[in-house]
Every structure is written in C-alpha cells, then in structure tokens.
Description:
This protein is 47% helix and 0% strand. It is built from four helices and no strands. Helix 2 packs across helix 4 (88-99). The protein is elongated and about 50 Å long. Residues 93-100 have low confidence and may be disordered.
Amino acid sequence: MTLALVATDAEHDELLDRVVTVLCPDAEHDGPCPVPWATTSVAGDSLPPPERVALVEAIEETNWTAHGDPERLDPPLRTRLLGAATDTAAADADDDVRAG
C-alpha cells in the first residue's frame, strides 16, 4: 500500500498512528503480530525527480473538481513539492504517459 500525501509533521505522525492501529488493533498483544507488517515513510524531496513527479501526480489524481476532473495542487505548493524536478522530469513523465 502506498499513501501519497502532503502533511505537516504532526499530521504525518497522526496518520501513521491511525495506520498502525488498523494494521495492529491490539498493540499490547504478546509476541509478533499475526500478520507481519511494517511502515516506511519517505520525504518527497528526497526522491529522484521522476519519482517526485509521480508522487505529485498521484496526489493530484485523488483531488477532483466538481466537474469530475483531476485538480492540480496550488501552484506554489506544487512548485515546492517538485523542486528542481519541475522541468525535465515533468516533461519526461508527460512523454511516458502519452507513449503509454
């Protein structure tokens, strides 16, 4: 499962706590969980440009306008999330989608 989100540190921690509760509803049980699991969290700005573009696109694809179209993130936020990935990687990703 992959969760792509934009969150503050506090929102991130709260979300991870909720995910852990879903995966292991009884945190006080003895021994390992009956179903093994783990979580990993990665800051988007640590990703290579193509993965950063894919992350932003995944977030945008879950935000829909009233007309049923994907809604882009606020431009300053999108620029901050993409960083240096905005030009070349975005163009490469668009080419990949068209070539699909």
